[in-house]
Amino acid sequence: MNASVVAEVSPQSERRRLQARARRLARRAVSLADAGRYDEAIVCQSEVVSLRPDDGDAFLRLGLLYREVHCIEDAVLAFRRASSLDPDLSDSREALIETLLEAGRYPETIAEARSLVRDDTQNIFARDVLSVAYLQTGDLERALHMTTEMVRLDPLNPGHHFKRALLFQQQGDVAGAVGEYERARDLALSGTELHEDSVEALDVMDEYQLRQIFVLASEDLAFRIALMQDPIDAVIRRGYALTHDGLSRARQFSMEYAPDIALPRETAANRGGAKYYN
């Protein structure tokens, strides 16, 4: 074999050797991560990306490992590199957005999530993150808009309706909240945590409103008379939004007891709110 052939073959052989080493290191990194040995896994995966500097998936895996050990800045850099290498790889962009959100870096989160929505108009994950980020920055209107978009794209997902209900409740829109909690309850499988949370939220809102109705009836003669004549019409006209069970309870009101019922300092709605908003 002449020297020119050897010169051609040697670089190819070297590339094959390095690629084989990269595959071995990648498998080793997975095994170490599965065993909870993340620092060692990071060392292996770092060598993988040095051998495969154009491999977006390799940088994604490195970023995920950094996130496991809470090295947020290193994770962000790895995810950004993965995204730049393969802009169509939504996993790396979503991992970046999720990491920024968890780190409380809301302006960056919003910028990256909005960019993903522009590039992937059907992406629900980015809208979900945006709803959280907007809520954390006090922009309830935009947060609500994102949940509305989530419901539009996936109307049978009870979680989207539940999140929308939370925002309505935080805005003080009782009717909107009750309607969305009812949809979440009806769509969620019975016995699931989401179903139980929806039922509890509706009970809390009914209890809060019914106590207000009792107090109003004790102070307002016209309302008390209307309540006795047609309780459902009376409460609806006053802007209350009771569930079917709540309206049934309203029918059973005996106005002779209304003056004895006072609104407690800490209402059921306030107690429930701590669970849903924290």
Structure characterization notes:
This protein has 278 residues and is mainly α. The chain has a domain at 176-278. Helix content is 78%, strand content 0%. It is built from 15 helices and no strands. Helix 11 (193-219) runs antiparallel to helix 15 (268-277).
The average pLDDT is 87
Counting H and I runs of at least 4 residues, what is the number of helices?
A: 15
Q: C-alpha Rg, in Å? A: 28 Å
Shape: elongated
Strand/helix succession: HHHHHHHHHHHHHHH
Share in β-strands: under 5%
Helix content: over 70%
Q: Which class do the helix and strand fractions yield?
A: mainly alpha
The major β-sheet equals: none
As residue ranges, the low-confidence spans are 257-278
Head-to-tail CA distance between termini: 74 Å
Summary, kept brief:
The protein has 278 residues and is mostly helical.
Which structural traits does this protein have?
278 residues, mainly alpha, 15 helices, 78% helix, disordered C terminus
Give the topology, please:
Layout: H1 3-34, H2 38-51, H3 56-68, H4 72-85, H5 90-102, H6 106-119, H7 124-136, H8 140-153, H9 158-171, H10 174-187, H11 193-219, H12 221-229, H13 231-237, H14 244-251, H15 268-277
Helix pairs in contact: 1-2, 2-3, 3-4, 3-5, 4-5, 5-6, 5-7, 6-7, 7-8, 8-9, 9-10, 10-11, 11-12, 11-14, 11-15, 12-13
